[in-house]
Every structure is written in structure tokens, then in C-alpha cells.
Design goal:
Elements: H1 9-38, H2 48-71, H3 86-107, H4 119-125, H5 129-140
Helix pairs in contact: 4-5
Amino acid sequence: MAEKISFTQEQLDEALVNAKNEWVEKELNPIVAERDGLLQFKPKDMTPEEKAIKTKQQELFDKEVSLTLKEHGLEQFAGVVKVENEDELKETVKALNGIVNQIKIDLGYIPDNHKQQNEYDTFAQKNDTKGMIATKLSKLFR
């Protein structure tokens, strides 16, 4: 049958310590080293003063965007325009101006019956047949 193997408490404690040390070396130490290497890329926490400055800068840029849109007559688009820097703002304003101008052209009055009338048509509107005939005959004898 199976033999009974017995260990003393000291042997068990020593085996546990050895297993723990082996685990620390093989598993834990590489993970800790990798974590320490990645900590250099962690963004630093901003101080309250830095947060206040960043907030003020964002408010100033938002006001600049608002004023630029108002200057170009595009303040209706203020809720839609989301830009990160001045270059994007310039491009967006340029594009919106182009769109607005095209809409104005498309919605403008385009006369469809605004033709120049000749003499014959003038006489025809007045129901003056003699004038109509005279106009036609005058073209023959020119």
C-alpha cells in the first residue's frame, strides 16, 4: 500500500518559503519591472493652478471662436462648430462661408420670363395688327 510520508513543521515552512521566493523571482519581479518602466509614461497630475490656467485658456479660445463666427456672420453655427486650434477654425469658417454664399445664390430671385421684347411682341400685346404687319414688312425691305 501507500507509504505515509511525514514532514516536520520546519521542512514545511522551508518548502513554503522556497516556493514563495521562486514565485517572486519568476513571476512578480518581471511584472514589477514592467510596471516601473511604464510609470514614466503616466501623465503627471495637474496642480489646481495648472487646471485653472487650462480652463481659462479654453474659455478664451471659445470666446475667440464665438467672435470669429460673429465677425463672419456665422453665429448660428456656434453650437455646431467644434475646433481644437486656430487653423481648424480658419478652415471651418472658410467652408461655412462658401456654403452660406452658395445657399444665398440658390435662394436668390431668378427671373424666368424676363426677356427683352421686340417691336412685334409689343404690337401683339396691344392687338395692333397694322403695327405687327408693318414690323414684318419693314424687315423684308431692309
